[in-house]
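Kindly inspect this today.
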Amino acid sequence: MAAAFEVPRKAVSTVAAYLAALEPERITTAQATELFGLFAELTRLGSAGQVLLTPRVAESDTWKNEGHRSAASWVAKATGTGLGDAIATVETAERLRSLPRTTEALRTGMLSAPQVREIAAAAAGRPSAELQLLEAATTCTLKGLKDQCRQVRAITGSAEAENARHEAVRRSRFFRHWSDPDGAFRGEFKITPDAGARLLSSLDVRANELFDRARKSDDRESPAP
């Protein structure tokens, strides 16, 4: 088992030592540009390793033993990202099980984390579009890729597929909350579009009530940013 860790551990220590000695002001702009590209490739490869290992992390007891409520919560702490990003990583990893070409492109460092997330989300519902989206990733900006993925999802949107997606969202609905270091209450939720519309309607009614009450008492606050 030790051999499985030898390469990544050596890579981490080597890169860490290099960065500790790096003096950007002492290299040429051409060298800086080339090095930037190399570190961008390292970033893609690092993200690929995380996505590929996420299913096994989810199957382990590690996140439970460390007091996390979900594998995504553990991933968020391990990567220093938000819970929303971690949930997206878990979902992407699961979708890749049925997308071999995308998985291979991920392994070779061809795709960034945002690219693989967009492709997996679109191609999971229409695998026949996988190759088309992978080609788009090599020629389009991220915005262009997102547009193509959106078109793929729209084509997939038959009534039957729409019902299936709705049911999938319903089964995966959740509400989570936590406290920020400054004590602020934070939360995140996932619900179906129709439930979201009802929630927003209720919030609008309540917001108007509070606004009218505050206006009558001359208690004014700036709108939320």
